[in-house]
Amino acid sequence: MKRYYRVGELAKLYGVSPDLLRYYEEKGLLCPRRQENGYRAYRVQDVWRLNVIRDLRVLDVPVETIRRYLDSHSAATTRQLLQDELALLDGQIAHLQALRRTVQRRLDSCTRAFTLPLEQCFAQEFPARRCHSLARPYRTDAEMDPLIQELRRFDPEHLYVWGNDGIGSYLSVEGALAGRCQEYTGVFILHPGGESQLDAGTYLCLGYRGPNTRNAELVPRLLAEARARDLAPAGPLLEFLLADIHTSADDADHVTELQLRVAPAR
Question: Global pTM?
C-alpha cells in the first residue's frame, strides 16, 4: 500500500483541486508532512481524514465543526456526529419534499393553464378566496411586475411568481361597462393567510390565449353573456394570469382567465 501521496496524486484520487487540499491544510483539517524538497506528503491518516471531510462537506457541515471532530476523534464523538448527520439528512429530506411539492403545484398550474376551455363562457361557484392584494392602479405589464414583487414580501419563501396561477389583477367594472377594458385598479396573489379575500359566489368565467390586449374583445363578450343569462355584475372583475411572460416569451402561449362575480339581475 502506498505510504505517502503528493498533493497532485491525492487531488486526482479524490477528484478535487490541489487548492482545496491546501485550503483544508490551512484550516487545520489536513496535516501533511513536508519532505526534504519541501513537497507535501500525505499519509494514510490524511486519506482517512479526507474521506471524513468529503462526506461531511456534502452535508454542508461547517469546516470548523469538522476540525473539532477530527481533533477529538473518539467512539463517543463519532456516535454524536452520526446522530448529527442523521438530523441534517432529515432536515434536507424535509426541505426537498417541500420543494418537490412546490414544483408539483407549479407544474399542475401549467397543466391547468393549457387545459382550460378557451373562448367559452361558463359559470363556476367559488368559495371565499383569501389573498394578499394591493389597491394600486396601473396601466402596463411593466408596472404590474413590481407590484407583484411587492406582494411577495408577505411570504417570500412560498409566494412564487413563475408557475403561480393565483396571480391576477382587479379590473374596474365601471370602466369595463364604459368600454375601458384594461383599467386596472390593483393586483392580488391568492394565499390562505391573506389579509383580503375574493368573495364567495357565482363567477362567470372566460379564458383566452394571447396578449391581454384581447380584453378589448373579450371583456365585452363576457358582459354580454352575463346580460344574456339575466345576470348582473355583483363584485370584482378579475384577470387571472394562468400563463404569462414567466411561462413563455411568446405571448401566443399566454393564457388569461377573466372572472366576473355575478348575481341575478333585478
Answer: 0.68
Q: Please say whether the beta carbons of 258 and 214 come within 8 A.
A: no
* Nearest-angstrom CA–CA distance, 145 and 190: 16
Of the candidates 170, 150, 155, 147, which has an alpha carbon nearest to the alpha carbon of residue 102? 155
Say which range, 18-32, 62-76, 140-154, 251-265, has the weakest mean pLDDT.
Answer: 140-154
Residue type, 95: H
Give the pLDDT confidence score for residue 10 in this predicted structure. Answer: 86
In contact, 144 and 168? CB cutoff 8 Å: no
Burial annotation 203-237 (CB, 10 A radius, 16+ → b, else e): bbbbbbbeebebbeebbeebbebbeeeebebbbbb
* Residue reference for cell 405571448: 251
| b/e burial code for range 91-125 (CB count within 10 A of at least 16 → b) | eeeeeeeeeeeeeeebeebbeebeebeeeebeeee
**Residues 6+ positions from 222 with CB-CB distance below 8 Å:** 121, 204, 206, 258, 260
Strands (E), 62-195: 121-126, 129-134, 167-171, 184-190
